[in-house]
Amino acid sequence: MYPGTHAQATPDKPAIIMAGSGRTVTYRELDDHSADLAAALHGMGLRKGDVIALLSENAPECLEIYWAAVRSGLYVTSVNWHLAPSEVAYIVSDSDARVLFASSGVAALASAVVEELGDSDIRTIAFGGNIDGFEAYGDVLAQAGPRLVDQPRGSDMLYSSGTTGRPKGVKPSLLPIQVDEPGDPITGLIQHVFKVTADDVYLSPAPMYHAAPLKWSGAIHALGGTVVILEKFDAERILEVIEQYKVTITQMVPTMFVRLLQLPPEQRNAHDTSSLRLVVHAAAPCPPDVKQAMIDWWGPILVEYYSATENHGTTIITTQEWLTKRGSVGKSAMGPVHVCDDDGNELPPGEVGLIYFERETRPFEYHKDPEKTRAAEHPAHSNWTTVGDLGYVDEDGYVFLTDRKAFMIISGGVNIYPQEVENVLTLHPAIYDVAVIGVPDAEMGQQVKAVVQLRAGQTPSDELADEIIAYTRERIAHFKAPRTVDFVDELPRTATGKLVKREIEKRYLAAGAQA
What we know:
By secondary structure, the chain is of the alpha/beta class. It is built from 17 helices and 28 strands. Strand 15 and strand 16 form a beta hairpin.
């Protein structure tokens, strides 16, 4: 199933509604635009397995471009527009993208990215307005050739940072099917497990460069539902949109729950949210008290899932299950789950280890990184894969997470990798040594803290801490920069020079427990 199926049956039904502007794209328009773009890309010489890149704030064209790729055997790499130009350029270059689509809303960034790419022969196409040097999206569609008869199913190829902080493309295997044939696992999951139908209205309040909003919106279209897109997250606006469009399903991260719960009671109670039948949450651990408060407010309609950009496995837990398995992320819904020690030995229920999911074959590889791909495999079973998360399984098969990807920081549902921040701060003229960690934050889940050992002759001060934060923000995306800086006399390192970051984290966790 794909938009073309529903364009025939319900051509005038809204496929996409922008919550702020009210702009609507019907199924006929979504099918026409994505088909024309697929034909245009084919005319540019792109073939199955090639890559296109997308740099945009939330806009209907994001899903038109997504479907153009999916109906022509291409990979689409959607890039976080909060990144610095050099970071975006790295992803565009590393992905081997042959075309870069950019919205006029990020025109300055898009132009800077093209400058960073230098002599690259990448085609550049702008939508929503003009960008100097970019072709116009409308002109590309108008000049498209006939629709493709062969429509092999493509996929997303999103980027997930590695242990060095350099992002790596998560490249799934392309399915050996046409776009109108069943077989997409995400579509099957939300159809059969979450019982999504063409009657559902799905609210997507998160940025479309994230895996869940992009994949879920695509699956909703495959099933004929309507996707309502919030241009930018706003807690009260979410309640207004749910009421206005009679939203039946939405997907959030725990920080969004916190923001909703922080609204004054009169605002929370001013809007009718009774149309909701399902509230899905994922992307970060949800504090149990926050989840309980949402259940008390919206009823037993919360469903949590645990997965990753790699889509190597999924667990799901309903409200009813969670109330008896508080803190669990559920049972596996995509292949058996195994918990193993560092040597690959499978552990009994209740013991903490690396979480592996078993599939018929390994479902992904890291683009241009065979070493990282091999590291994700179990030592004895190449079809068991892990993303480095620690946890345990109880005797009833429920998964509990105890850590997330070594030292990865999850703030507001966004993954932040300390090594990347440390790489920037290492060259600061006042810093001798630095460790970046995540510390608890009541609103965001975690926040970034830099623990700094200064060079001789430097004096700790609030002014220097502010300068270090500003220094970081000038060099990488603002959301990765430290919120706070602590100064210490010495950081713990082994005799071989390895930073003992666990010891640093323990200090802050212990301090938080005593507070």
